[in-house]
Amino acid sequence: xxxxxxxxxxxxxxxxxxxxxxxxxxxxxxxxxxxxxxxxxxxxxxxxxxxxxxxxxxxxxxxxxxxxxxxxxxxxxxxxxxxxxxxxxxxxxxxxxxxxxxxxxxxxxxxxxxxxxxxxxxxxxxxxxxxxxxxxxxxxxxxxxxxxxxxxxxxxxxxxxxxxxxxxxxxxxxxxxxxxxxxxxxxxxxxxxxxxxxxxxxxxxxxxxxxxxxxxxxxxxxxxxxxxxxxxxxxxxxxxxxxxxxxxxxxxxxxxxxxxxxxxxxxxxxxxxxxxxxxxxxxxxxxxxxxxxxxxxxxxxxxxxxxxxxxxxxxxxxxxxxxxxxxxxx
Amino acid sequence: xxxxxxxxxxxxxxxxxxxxxxxxxxxxxxxxxxxxxxxxxxxxxxxxxxxxxxxxxxxxxxxxxxxxxxxxxxxxxxxxxxxxxxxxxxxxxxxxxxxxxxxxxxxxxxxxxxxxxxxxxxxxxxxxxxxxxxxxxxxxxxxxxxxxxxxxxxxxxxxxxxxxxxxxxxxxxxxxxxxxxxxxxxxxxxxxxxxxxxxxxxxxxxxxxxxxxxxxxxxxxxxxxxxxxxxxxxxxxxxxxxxxxxxxxxxxxxxxxxxxxxxxxxxxxxxxxxxxxxxxxxxxxxxxxxxxxxxxxxxxxxxxxxxxxxxxxxxxxxxxxxxxxxxxxxxxxxxxxxxxxxxxxxxxxxxxxxxxxxxxxxxxxxxxxxxxxxxxxxxxxxxxxxxxxxxxxxxxxxxxxxxxxxxxxxxxxxxxxxxxxxxxxxxxxxxxxxxxxxxxxxxxxxxxxxxxxxxxxxxxxxxxxxxxxxxxxxxxxxxxxxxxxxxxxxxxxxxxxxxxxxxxxxxxxxxxxxxxxxxxxxxxxxxxxxxxxxxxxxxxxxxxxxxxxxxxxxxxxxxxxxxxxxxxxxxxxxxxxxxxxxxxxxxxxxxxxxxxxxxxxxxxxxxxxxxxxxxxxxxxxxxxxxxxxxxxxxxxxxxxxxxxxxxxxxxxxxxxxxxxxxxxxxxxxxxxxxxxxxxxxxxxxxxxxxxxxxxxxxxxxxxxxxxxxxxxxxxxxxxxxxxxxxxxxxxxxxxxxxxxxxxxxxxxxxxxxxxxxxxxxxxxxxxx
Lengths: 330, 768
Ligand SMILES: [Fe+3]
Ligand SMILES: [Mg+2]
Ligand SMILES: [Zn+2]
Ligand SMILES: [Zn+2]
What we know:
Chain A folds into 2 domains: about 10-145, CATH 3.30.1330.10; about 150-320, PurM-like C-terminal domain (Phosphoribosyl-aminoimidazole Synthetase, Chain A, domain 2). Helices cover about 30% and strands about 25% of the residues of chain A. Chain A contains 9 helices and 13 strands. Chain A has helices spanning about 10-20, 25-30, 60-75, 95-115, 170-175, 195-205, 220-230, 245-255, 275-285; strands at about 45-50, 55, 60, 80-90, 115-125, 135-145, 160, 210, 235, 270, 295-300, 305-310, 315-320. Magnesium ion binds near residues 48, 69 and 73 of chain A.
């Protein structure tokens, strides 16, 4: 338990494991906080805490998720993420080996995203007070020139782009956590999205009206939030929604709607219609945007509502769900 | 002489407008030598009558007893007035006013007189598809506002010709103030178009349409409350093609035949059915198929596959009669023109767009439908007609309540939605709105609420809704703006209250609320509930024990999931050893995952639904693993038992727990059924035993609850009571035990009737 109570062991934990792994000049100075210069302009600042179970899963682990998650949140603000902090809450008895493994993937993820983890903290708590390991990451980034990607910016006529397949992360985590055996190779989609966002906002800063990452609550929830804050309707097409075949199969068996399942490496972009094809092309060039497609558009009818043209005809309301997916039919 | 005269002011309310009421009053006035006037106002019909005292009283008496067939008087006020100079009895122009307590008539099928005229080559309206009079024709579907006058209907764009106007103005004419009055010179016209909307030039569009139907085409017909899709019911290819294009796999399609004699060739009709078929409401009536081989080929098998019944109606508009009389058809399929679950098309352009891939031709007309209204569906059961859907012909006739209620809007459930508005002692239940998961249906829901509020002049003070937060009707209620009180009413309580309200029940009842799904107060999905119920509250006396629904909604569409859940519940891990064809047909891994979902509580809400239990048994016995429409599996299970009804059967073992609320154990029933399946019993016998078990079990339990509580009356509600065997069986068993049993005959027992219960319960809650 001594790791983290402020004494030697904690210092040892940080200096012997953390610092060498996250090796960078700002962190290595070991002051109470990180000190750095910022260029002129607007900043984005975001924080999120990761408590995923299991902590290791196909496609990644909690550390990678924590880095990418905050990187993406900052990117969604229309910013280029620069510095991150990492706070770790570790359950007593957690294996140092696993910790190292997680820290290493954090470092790798940071390197891939080209961000620095410049300050951090660890606390070790008694057994049962936390489940294995919780990670908080916060980050700051610089807003791109002329970029404004707030959820309230969707305008009628805008196209809705999704950067890839839905539900991979949520279904992977669920099936892993519950130990369900599916003979498939599905894995989490956790990935940094800041590079593709950079390309988009550098080339078309004014064409990209909204950026959102459809994490918890999935694409359905994210679109509802956009529709609500933009006071516009959103129409999507069932047949255009990208879902991997295996994921769709599992969703069907479990009775889940992929529209409401979490993603960790996808974004929704609301783009002005005349530039949609160019933006889409740009996204396709990124390694995490190969499956990007236009799934619908913003409408001036039915403000605040998301609706989907179904494959059998008719227009299903894609509602914000209030809780579990309790059956509505009888 | 004049000093003997007296004068009276009469105010008459109810369905008194657009039903030939004023001409009738005019004739009466003439008969009794009464002077004065009559006016339609939004407060009802106001009459100033002046005459000899004995004539006045005869006049008043006759108004009440001899009123026209469509009229329904709910209020008759009379007060003395000073005698003034009237030279004659006249009918004065309608005026709009504030308090619209008048009732609007539903749409009425064509009357004998109009039919005779239309078929008479010498009549000016010979062959005219829009003939009508004060006794028949469109009403509710063409009204946009009150009072019911031509400028407030979709007839406003057709100025009457001299002849029509003369009829309209003549108090002695059958068409006096018949708002939709029209003739070939001045009124609406039909037009036949191809699927691209191009008119097909023909001297007789109706005859041409009949020929197209005969040669196997699918035609979209604009009717009274919306478009129908029509096809020759004898033509298997045409019917299958219609099914395929409409993406409607197996749900029975409605039929229309020219007369009763033709219907009798393919369906069994008894006297009650004849009365219903011939009624002015002209609903679709559920009739048992005739099974003699010679006649079986009369109707294509695809009309109502794997089903013992047809839904049949007689023609109800002049156009229907013309169409069915020009070429002999055994029957036409007449199904509402929509693609799966979205509201029936009413507008020409919209129809061309939405039905483009379905209809080959369109027979349209230029009289607008303001408010759609699907065909009503009725089935005679246990001595009364029972609504499966209450819509065209019945709406907006109110349900008359025992108590005066404030103005309430009840938003209904999630599927088969109707809404209910109350005013005084009237509960106005809307036409069938449908399944609210669609944007189109939700828009129609909002439109209907606004429309009904306007034509009934109701400004709700109270909004009642279901407890399910994700029903669109609940969402609408919670977002409702204005100075209103909002009240959530539990689904199964609302079911029972709706039965109590239509039967004017006073004291508490034992309510059997059996349906598919509804959210309970404990967060679980209810549907097999025995409630001690009053208007304002209920307690749960017993319920079917909970079963997980692996996959949530998927478990409703796929009864095999519920069957697995049942087996797991009854046998636990031993399930793997049960020798059952049902289990053999399920992929091992799939089964494993389903059990995992149950064990780990993944997307597996708990349900006490009897509807789901029916589904499970249907799947277990091999009837079906997947349902293509709501209630299909349960319905087919019932039909199996029907085939076995003559046998005397023993119930399976049954029991319940002793704690409160009691839980009805499913284990012994499931185990008994599995034993029977393994012993090779025919499905019909098993189904019969299952029905018998439910009847004995529920009536025994009611007996005990009745003794404990002293309650001697029972109300039955919920969609499961569309099952005739259970319904009739329970009624007679409960009667035998000395209970008075109340059932639905004015509103559907399914979720289509729930808005009434919500409204009345909301009022009672606030009053208490
Ligand atoms: Fe229900
Ligand atoms: Mg986040
Ligand atoms: Zn008539
Ligand atoms: Zn005319």
